[in-house]
Amino acid sequence: MILGRVIGHVWAARRDARLQRAKLLVVRPHAIYEPAFATRHLVATDDVDAGVGDDVIVCLGAPARASLGDNNMPVDAAVLGVVDRIEWRPDAMQAPGAGPGIKRPLGGIEAVLK
Amino acid sequence: MILGRVVGRLWATRQAAGLTGRKMLLIRPETAAGRETNRLVVAVDGLAAGPGDRVIVAHGSRVRDLTVGADVADKDIVIGIVDGHELKGR
């Protein structure tokens, strides 16, 4: 799962039939995270009624489909929760190689705390 | 999923059997703000997208199985054609 902020909505009339009822959000990950491409954004389905400006937890891959309750949705990212509060220690963020996919220490999380 | 723009099509005479008869699109992933990145992705079209369209591209074998079929040799699939998107709260 990754932490990000909802920055917008997407509308698509022509889309896969199983997606017709899905709400699609644009999420900017708070860390430099590369699922497949360095696009600095994700499009995720939303079941928890997140709004623009909310910080959210986004799940990628098969668990995202499982969380939607339908393993037959052709999606690879889903918003699983809206963040109420985050506690963090700045010194813990400085460790290099914080995890797979994270190319440098987390950036932008300070904005979460404001 | 990510947002991208279809910049062209691709044809190949010698190709894997899993690509025969499949429409392949060249897609430039965009940033959320709509700026094009320097990346390029070859995706199989699950809809009827064409050059110039902005699309939603999903990745993964399960997505492929559900949309264009398990016999296709590509894991990047176009699953939506974008009509519009709204960005706020940056």
Can you put this structure into words, describing what you see?
Chain A is mainly beta and 114 residues long. Chain A has a single domain (2-113), classed as EutN/Ccml (OB fold (Dihydrolipoamide Acetyltransferase, E2P), Beta Barrel). Chain A has 3 helices and 6 strands; from the N terminus they run E-E-E-E-E-H-E-H-H. Chain A has helices spanning 62-67, 90-93, 110-113; strands spanning 2-11, 14-15, 23-29, 42-46, 55-60, 77-82. Chain B has 90 residues and is mainly beta. Chain B has a single domain, classed as Beta Barrel (OB fold (Dihydrolipoamide Acetyltransferase, E2P)). Chain B has one helix at 61-67, and strands at residues 2-10, 24-29, 41-45, 54-59, 76-81, 84-87. A 5-stranded mixed β-barrel of chain B has the order 1-2-3-5-4. Chains A and B meet through strand 1, strand 2, strand 3 and strand 4 of A and strand 1, strand 4, helix 1, strand 5 and strand 6 of B.
Task: Kindly estimate the percentage of residues of chain A that lie in beta strands according to DSSP.
Answer: 25-35%
CATH C-level category of chain B:
Mainly Beta
Count of β-strands of chain A: 6
- Reading off the top of the CATH hierarchy, the class of chain A is best stated as Mainly Beta
Spell out the helices and strands of chain A N to C.
EEEEEHEHH
Which structural class do the helices and strands of chain A define? mainly beta
Number of helices, counting only DSSP H or I runs of 4 residues or more of chain B: 1
Radius of gyration of chain A, rounded? 15 Å
Q: C-alpha Rg of chain B, in Å?
A: 13 Å
Distance between the termini of chain B: 20 Å
Overall helicity of chain B: under 10%
**Mean pLDDT metric of chain B:** 88
Oligomer: heterodimer
CATH level-four homologous superfamily name of chain A: EutN/Ccml
Helix content of chain A: 10-25%
- Adjacency order of strands in the biggest sheet of chain B: 1-2-3-5-4
The CATH topology label of chain B is OB fold (Dihydrolipoamide Acetyltransferase, E2P)
Question: How far is the N terminus from the C terminus of chain A?
Answer: 22 Å
Tell me the structural class of chain B: mainly beta
Shape of chain A: globular
Quickly count the helices of chain A.
3
